[in-house]
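Write out the 3D structure for:
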Amino acid sequence: MAISLPVLALTWPLAAALALSAPVPPVIPLRLVAPFESPRTDWGAGHRGIDLAADTDQPVASLTQGVIGFAGMIAGKPVVTVHMGDGRRVTYEPVLTGLAPGRPVRAGELIGVVASRGGHCGGEAGCLHIGLLDGSGYVDPLALLRRPAVLRPLQPRPGLPR
């Protein structure tokens, strides 16, 4: 099922975030419903991602720059995966998209909309599940939303910028 994504130039409130090199939220407003819970074993119970509050048909933006690696159904759920180019991949579900595998995407670019079915939160007031997989397994995708720490001296030094 192909859908067409709206063209949103600066109407999507990401222009300021992109200009400041801030992390790009996949949905707005950004509200965590369920945190990442690392399983004790590869096969054990846990929550291998995060759930963000989202409504059916809400636009979903890519957290990262990359290439669409997969767009289709997995176990009855519409899934979009973005390969970041450094071995990590970000998975979004339930997300309907018209983008094909191999297509490059930018951080903040719309990649689809939240589907009405297929997510584990369910219904109109559901959620967007985001998973992050690296070479060691699943890791907390919230790391992609955090800015790197910038350490500054407590006392200004002569000749150094503030």
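Residues 32-38+46-144 form a domain with the Glucose Permease (Domain IIA) fold (CATH 2.70.70.10).
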